[in-house]
Structure formats: C-alpha cells, structure tokens
Amino acid sequence: DQRTGGSKGMSHALSTEDLIDAAYSSLKDDFDPALLTTIRAPLVENYAAKEHVEAMLRQILLRILLDRPEKPVAYMIDLIKEYRPRTAVVIGPPASGKRTLAEGIANRLGLEHVCVSDLVEGMKLTQTDVGAQLRDYEEGGVDPPDELIETLVTTRLREKDCAGKGWVMDGWPRTAQQAVNLRALGLDPQAVLVVDVPGQTVEDRVAFRVLDPETNTLYHTYENPPPLGVGIRCVTRRGETSDEIIERVAKYQDRLPSVLDALGSGDPPKKKGLRTVRVDGSLPFGQLDRLSDSLAKKIAV
C-alpha cells in the first residue's frame, strides 16, 4: 500500500529507534556517560519492544496533538493512567477495501493487523492437524467451517503481541454469534468501523480483482495492478464469479444489523464507550491511505 496521504506527522510515525535517538540527543552534556551508553544499548530497545512502549507512545502522542490541551503534561499523565491497548474491527462487504484500511490503521497506531484470510493461508502451510484440515477443505472446493476459523481468530487475538500492543482486525466477525463469542471471551473491540460500499461498486471491483497465490496479495487490474512479472501468475479467487458476489453481498447486508447489535454498536448502542464509525468505501483505491490516516485519528486513545 502507498502511504503518502494524511497528516504529515503520522505518515511517518516515530519508531522505537527514533524515540531512543530523540531521548539521547536531548540529554545535557554533563549527563552521566554510563547512562548515555545504557540509553543506546540494545537492552533499552528490547525493553521497549517487549513492553510495547512504541504503540502506547504513538497513540498517546496522537491524542495530545489532536486535542491540544492547555496542560499537556497533566493531560498525558491522565491518558497514561487510563491507557489500554486499542482494539478495533473493520467490517465490510467483499472488495470494500477493509483489509487495506485495517493495515493502514495498524501501521499508524502501532497495532497488530489481524487479517483472517492471512491467518487461514498461513495455517495451510503448517504441518498441523488444523493445517491439514484447511488443505482438505480447499482441495474439496469447500469453505472451512466457521468454528475452525473462529479458533484461529481467538487464538491469535490472545497472543502476547496482540494483547500488549492492541489490534485491528478485518474479516471477522461475520455473524452475530461470532460477535457474541468474542465479547464472551473479553476480545470485543473498542471501535467498530463499518465500510459502506454500493453493491454495484463491489461487483465492478471484483470483476477486475486477482490474487497472487505466492504472496496472498490482492490486486485490481486497473486501480492497483500487480507489479511487472507478477500478473502472469495471478488468478481469480474461488467464490468470486458475478453470481457468487451478488449472493455474498446480499448475505452480508442481511447479517450486518445483527452483527453490529451483538457487538454493542447497534441503534441505539448497547456498549458504553464503543466507537462506531461509518466509512465511505466507494473512494478510489488511491485515496484509501489518506482515509486510513483519518480513521486512525478517530479511534486513537
């Protein structure tokens, strides 16, 4: 994805090394040299990664810049006291851009991007019982059962990096029961982003969508064509004929109200503090990066 849009400050977010460099350069000349060495040591960077300091500081800094409080230090202290890793889901019909948006938000806020299709493809490559089951379903031309996918999703969200840094997920939940199960496990999101795209736009996008089977990367032959030499190996994904897409969009639209209600973001909202954001997904592919930047600001701490 191109990352050229949005706020100048957030397009190139500070990395852990940037933060260490800034701390190092700001110290006085008469500071203890031993401490200076420690600040530059890998131990500090390892600590920052282990405790997910970068994700926390990135989100807090964004909130301070957005709110511009009169007393930024006191405001920052309050934010730190209340801080907990951000969690969000991006929900939308096929070809709505939800994966691109989720990835962009994750990059800007230092969150883990949990893509359900990537989880499935990755598990297929493993020599595990689950991997074997997924390969069997694929070879038989049958979608794996939701219960199997749900196990992959909940396991991933419970892993240490997701729990420590926070996450943004696309492609799940798909049904009200899946949303209920997430909440029952304490894995419900703090923000729900609903990508709205007209059915005809979805059909037009899918008609020109291809998949690189080696990297599991999706391309659009006009708006986001595959690189030179890659297109020759790209294929049309199973389940993406015109009739199949019409059926999938209809099923999505039918399920959406109950999914939102189960997540607590229905009308009226049932979960206090949950942010629900409606997103115009009909924008051209080239504008999704700027949209990701805007959405990241809306769901920051």
Task: Detail the topology: elements first, then pairings.
Layout: H1 8-11, H2 16-26, H3 33-40, H4 42-50, H5 53-67, H6 72-82, E1 87-91, H7 98-109, E2 112-115, H8 116-124, H9 129-139, H10 146-158, H11 160-165, E3 167-170, H12 176-184, E4 191-196, H13 199-207, E5 209-212, E6 217-220, H14 242-263, E7 275-280, H15 288-299
Parallel strand pairs: 1-3, 1-4, 2-3, 4-7
Antiparallel strand pairs: 5-6
Helix pairs in contact: 5-6, 7-15, 8-9, 12-14, 13-14
Can you offer a commentary on this structure?
The chain is built from 15 helices and seven strands. The protein has helices at residues 8-11, 16-26, 33-40, 42-50, 53-67, 72-82, 98-109, 116-124, 129-139, 146-158, 160-165, 176-184, 199-207, 242-263, 288-299; strands at residues 87-91, 112-115, 167-170, 191-196, 209-212, 217-220, 275-280. The strands form two sheets. A five-stranded parallel β-sheet has the order 2-3-1-4-7, with helices on both faces. A two-stranded antiparallel ribbon has the order 5-6. Helix 13 crosses helix 14 (242-263). The model is unreliable at 1-12 (pLDDT under 50).
- Overall radius of gyration: 21 Å
Poorly predicted tracts of residues: 1-12
Tally of helical runs: 15
Largest sheet: 5 strands, parallel
Outline, from the CA principal axes?
A: globular
N- to C-terminal separation? 25 Å
Alpha-beta classification: alpha/beta
Strand order, sheet with most strands: 2-3-1-4-7
